[in-house]
Design brief:
By secondary structure, the chain is an all-alpha fold. The protein is built from 24 helices and no strands. α10 crosses α19 and α12 crosses α24. The longest helix is centred in the middle third of the chain and has 32 residues. The model has no long low-confidence stretch (mean pLDDT 86).
């Protein structure tokens, strides 16, 4: 049964069919061959059920808010603010890029949007300052991964949909690991800039810092609205997404005046295209999960590979390796939808906190976004920067190693993620 499922998926992928087709046809064939008593029409019901959770309403709204800010001035004002305070440090522009990616991630929740919004202006600044292009692009595609760890995060929303975990707890638990990896990136780039003798830019005066802070002041409203509103109980994560869209519209239309009303349909169309692709995958993933759960495939796999009663550490390392490999080849949303139903019951049996598990899975999704051969950030960078594939990934291994180190620390020290959750939510 497992061999049939895997072989069917690989067959359709090799033939060039979209991923969602493989996710639908493979479980359908398993149903027809091994569970003939099930009505195939039930698969359609599962497709519909997959996109019914209320929390999924947050996905298109966060994407729309990110698209509005990519077209508008939010990203540039944010970059000017961060650069004014840390740009004069050795490796300051690289640190600026990492910090700006983390901050923009707290607004958008999308690593690809972060590559576009932060990567385009920062690449030019760093090249002019003497950084090597391959190192710049590797930094951008990896620092953009912080958008998946710093809330809001679309990957966390997908995990919450599959497992029923608290979105609010996942959001706050991602802050600790995100800041830790940001620190690692800053330290690495400081040493790299010192070793390669990258010149530093002049230190900004306090007058200049005051000016850029004033220009960027309104952008700070996004994390205040999203995180402050959620954790004070003023509104839910889904309502926070709606408010972020409204705030982005007010900011870009009326305050910055960087877009016009005529631009909104074009931006909304882009959001709609991305959202439709995400929701098709979510629907297919739910149907896939339902069939493999009914067929007891997760139990068969875990019993044969991990034994009947594996330790929490064994499960976490199995999760890490499985998601790491999967996210190298397929979109992280697909990996979360397909693999989580397999590992989640086993993790609960081993006594693993579902929020801890969710952050580790989200971190794997982040690593996979910039890991060859098919990381989505890589292809976004190839398109945005118009540079060859191998040039984009040439300097990526040290950055991937930083994220892997963060993952290992998170496995052995779960309080990196859970401490802030416990303080705020418990």
């Amino acid at each position: 049964m497992v061999l049939t499922l895997v072989a069917t998926m690989l067959f359709f992928l090799i033939l060039g069919f979209p991923m969602f087709m493989s996710m639908l046809v493979a479980p359908l064939i398993v149903m027809l061959l091994y569970i003939p008593q099930l009505d195939p029409a039930l698969l359609t019901q599962q497709l519909i059920a997959g996109v019914q959770p209320f929390v999924l309403l947050a996905v298109p709204m966060f994407i729309f808010a990110a698209d509005l800010m990519c077209v508008g001035q939010t990203a540039n004002r944010l970059l000017d603010f961060v650069e004014a305070f840390v740009g004069h440090i050795r490796g300051g522009l690289a640190i600026t890029t990492s910090a700006a990616c983390a901050f923009f991630g707290s607004i958008s929740g999308s690593c690809q949007a972060t590559v576009v919004a932060i990567g385009k202006p920062m690449r030019q600044r760093m090249l002019q300052a003497g950084y090597h292009d391959s190192n710049v692009m590797a930094l951008i595609i990896n620092a953009a991964e912080l958008a998946l760890l710093i809330p809001p995060s679309i990957a966390m929303l997908m995990y919450a949909v599959v497992t029923g975990s608290s979105v609010s707890e996942l959001f706050i638990a991602g802050i600790g690991p995100g800041l830790l990896i940001l620190l690692f990136l800053a330290v690495y780039n400081w040493f790299m800039a010192k070793r390669e003798n990258i010149p530093v830019i002049p230190k900004a005066s306090w007058r200049e810092r005051f000016r850029v802070t004033k220009r960027a002041l309104y952008t700070f409203g996004f994390p205040l609205i999203i995180l402050g509103g959620i954790y004070t109980g003023f509104f839910s994560p889904t309502e926070a997404a709606a408010v972020s869209v409204l705030y982005a519209l007010i900011l870009e239309l009326f305050i910055y005046k960087s877009i016009t009303v005529k631009d909104i349909p074009r931006i909304a169309l882009s959001t709609g295209l991305v959202t439709s692709a995400v929701f098709i995958l979510v629907a297919g993933g739910n149907a896939f999960s339902w069939v493999i759960t009914f067929a007891r495939i997760p139990q068969l796999l875990t019993d044969n590979l991990l034994g009947s009663n594996p330790s929490a550490l064994t499960v976490l390392f199995a999760v890490t390796i499985s998601y790491f490999i999967a996210c190298m080849f397929v979109d992280s949303i697909v990996a979360i939808l397909v693999l989580t139903p397999i590992f989640f019951p086993l993790a609960m049996q081993a006594g693993i906190d579902p929020i801890h598990l969710g952050i580790i899975i989200t971190l794997q999704a982040a690593i996979g976004a910039s890991t060859p051969p098919f990381g989505c950030d890589i292809f976004t960078a190839v398109a945005v920067f118009e540079r060859p594939y191998f040039e984009v990934i040439r300097k990526a291994p040290p950055y991937i190693a930083i994220f892997v180190l963060g993952n290992i620390l998170l496995i052995f020290f779960p309080q990196i993620a859970l401490f802030l959750r416990d303080v705020v939510m418990r």
